[in-house]
Amino acid sequence: MPLTRTSTVTRTTTVTLTTAFTLTALTASTLTARADSSDPWARSWGNNASGQLGNGNATLQLTPTNVQGIARQDLQELAAGGAESSGTGTATTPATSFAVALLKDGTVMSWGANGSGQIGNGTTNTQVAPGAVAGLSGVSHVAAGSNHALAVRNGRVLSWGSNASGQLGNGVTAADPGGAQKTPVPVQSLDRVVDVGAGCEFSVALRDNGTVWAWGAAADGRLGNDDERTNSNTPKQVKALTDVVAISVGCAHVLALAADGTVKSWGRNSDGQLGNDSTVRSTVPVTVQYLDSVAKVAATTNGSFAVLDDGSLRAWGDNGSGQLGDGYTDDRTTAVPIDAVQGVKEVAGGPEHTLAALDNGSVIAWGANTNGQLGSGSTAASSTPVVALPAGSDISHVAASTNGRSSYAY
């Protein structure tokens, strides 16, 4: 932003959900196989209009398909970005959905929409199968935002794609010479970075001293520096935040996990995604209430999740499509337990659906399903978890498009 996104996600009116439901605890015995559990490839499903599933075509996929040429054993990290097209006629906003994959050899592959150069191959051509990001090796982490991407190499951050709000962090914006970038460029004045995250036109980095830095769009306070009006095209430190061990970035909010197992948040809060018992945005970090012993955090488009040390799940924020999984469709301003889903290894989600990788190697999903993003074989929404990949599939990680309807597992 000046964001092309509104403060809330438009929800499809064709999905019918019950206002309350009871989740049944999921175990290996209750998971019905939908795919060959011995399949060695990274998997993807859902919307594929821009080739963002990486399977060589642009056809909608209602069940998991293979990402071409990327085996799970070779894949270190996969990040999915972008959004669906919106509007009609001359007011249509093109789709930006894409994905970036870091291989264990330190090289990076990408595919999907490329109108802003977000797949980093030196062109603006859409690509339906993985190809190399230009000139990248020795990479340790990647991230994908609404229309830009990040990579960490030797503690430094590289960026490419749209730069409309300074989200590339290279000291210029799209209006300047060298604004949008079709190949990676260095982020200024930042070193010793151990992780990165990307949202809707902003970027976040975690340094090895536990401090957090942000740059790009300032709207809604997403930079965490007590300023929601001034975009920054170079990194600025998030105020009063130390001892952070992990970050996760939504469309316009950020979660930061502290060493003591507590969670801080800042940015947009229209759906309660900051978890501080309000819907008022915050330009500086606030504490997520009623939450401790957190092992992992996951910020979805306008929602938030925490995996606790015991593998149980907590959720808060946007719930209009039942994507929090608590049995209702009411937004939550504080963390609520998702008691029926246990043994969680990782969570990810888009604006209206959620994925979870369980400790039995399966992937489950719930929420809206307009483009088959649940992987259930239909486009019917599900207010209870459905199986995308069965137990024994050897899956540990999931990802979903920043503001879209595409899903990934590896």
Task: Report what the structure shows.
The protein has 410 residues and is mainly β. It has one domain: 7 Propeller (Methylamine Dehydrogenase, Chain H), CATH 2.130.10. The protein has no helices and 28 strands. The protein has strands at 41-46, 61-71, 75-81, 98-103, 108-112, 127-132, 139-144, 148-153, 156-161, 181-186, 193-198, 202-207, 212-216, 232-237, 244-249, 253-258, 263-267, 282-287, 294-299, 303-308, 313-317, 332-337, 344-349, 353-358, 363-367, 382-389, 398-400, 406-409. The strands form 7 sheets. A 4-stranded antiparallel β-sheet has the order 2-1-28-27, with no helix packed on it. Strands 3-4-5-6 form a 4-stranded antiparallel β-sheet, with no helix packed on it. Strands 7-8-9-10 form a 4-stranded antiparallel β-sheet, with no helix packed on it. A hairpin with a 4-residue loop joins β12 (202-207) and β13 (212-216). It is globular, with a radius of gyration of 19 Å. It starts with 40 loop residues before the first strand and ends with a strand. Mean pLDDT is 90; it is low at 1-36.
